[in-house]
Amino acid sequence: MKKITIRLTFVVLLILLFSCKEHYTPKPLGYFRIDLPTKNYMRYTSTCPYSFEYPDYASITPDSSPRSEACFLNVTFKNFNGRLHLSYKEVNNNLAQFTEDAHMFVYKHTIKADAIDETIIHNDSTHVYGIIYDLKGNVASNIQFFLTDSNRHFLRGALYFGTTPNKDSLAPVIEFIRKDIVRIGESLRWGGIKF
Fold first, then answer.
1. What pLDDT sits at residue 32?
2. Low-confidence ranges of the chain (pLDDT < 70)
3. Residue 185, by phi and psi: left (phi above 0), alpha (psi -120 to 50) or beta?
4. Residues with Cβ < 8 Å from 146, sequence gap 6 or more?
5. Which of 129, 126, 104, 107 is nearest to 116 (CA)?
6. What is the pLDDT of residue 14?
7. What's the pLDDT at 128?
């Protein structure tokens, strides 16, 4: 009887010991709150043969990288640690090569991309045609595009962030800046040629 009481006491103590233990439930990962500014646009003009509207929370500087050419620009979104790199080329019977290069730069990301969506840009009144590529997933550049008049001008853009790609934490910023990229396409005007 004494052995049964000792065993029963031991079992009750074990049950009490393990039942009183708090169970830890980890909280899901959170991300910093991102305050998105109000969209106000201003027009960029220069000696380059194009102009467009860009948001006032961005700044534009000439590209100073070793491979840059005249009219290569960086639109910097300082608050988001992002940069939209724009490269301009004059078309001279090489439009097919430029569009193929732009397509190749996008599809180099297929290894990391979950999906690549294409949005066609077609505006006869301003002679602006092109494609916006939305790259889904943890890729180096989530949005790329090219715009052309199919005659003389070709503008290519790629959005980069100075951080490790994380599709979940960057998603609100990418969607926010995408609207600015669409605005660039809608407001783009070519210079140096009469239609």
1. 67
2. 16-24, 28-32, 192-195
3. alpha
4. 98, 99, 102, 130, 131, 154, 155, 156, 157
5. 107
6. 72
7. 96
Residue 6 CB neighbours (<10 A): 10
52: phi > 0 → left, psi -120 to 50 → alpha, else beta; which? beta
Q: What is the structure's pLDDT at 22?
A: 66
Name the residue with tokens 């929370």: 57
Cα–Cα distance measured from residue 126 to residue 113, given in angstroms and rounded to the nearest whole number: 32
Q: Can you tell me the distance from the alpha carbon of 31 to that of 91, in angstroms, rounded to the nearest whole number?
A: 44
A 10 A CB-CB count for 183 gives 16
Q: How far is CA 48 from the centre of its chain?
A: 25
114 φ/ψ angles, rounded to the nearest 5 degrees: -80, -35
Question: Token digits for 174?
Answer: 């990418």
CA atoms within 13 A on the CB side of 3: 0
